[in-house]
Request: fold
Amino acid sequence: GAVVSQHPSRVICKSGTSVKIECRSLDFQATTMFWYRQFPKKSLMLMATSNEGSKATYEQGVEKDKFLINHASLTLSTLTVTSAHPEDSSFYICSARDDAGGGTDTQYFGPGTRLTVL
Amino acid sequence: DQQVKQNSPSLSVQEGRISILNCDYTNSMFDYFLWYKKYPAEGPTFLISISSIKDKNEDGRFTVFLNKSAKHLSLHIVPSQPGDSAVYFCAAILGGSQGNLIFGKGTKLSVKP
Reply:
């Protein structure tokens, strides 16, 4: 149980195009999902908190017009990188908080999406 | 199938004692392992790592041990403090330092005063 999927797992795109990444909780409901970006030397950066039915909460320094987040259902959040540039190339990971976690911060990570912008 | 497994969802330890968090993996090609610590409502923060060519790495109260033959690693916290109470994620990387992170499901550590 408690599986989170991401699609696609890998994407290569040209500079200036937009890329959509999906994050799904497969066997539980997640009102709240999180989007992270992995930087070199292993650090993870929280980009935004995605809330079903409401606007995402972005961390300081993250451009909300560039990284569009939509959380349309209790099992799906999408991250769209708009007008992608080579510096957006990275590994993007989502996590989902289990609504049935009993008030604990039980999160499950997705497998990640490797984005390469040429 | 899960490549990185943390079989204990929770662990409770008395302050001052040792906390041992365990992690098993299935892919012998992993070349880097990391531990992350996560407080509620915050993103995970990097704690300590170990290369597959080593069997031990120590940083203050935190020590990570790697047993490649058993495909097992563990994080030791000595002495445990109440501020160590958090969820600890084990992660592995395939393909060098730029490879993708593969996370375990986490172990919630509670350190009681």
Summary: The first strand of chain A starts at residue 4 and ends at 7.
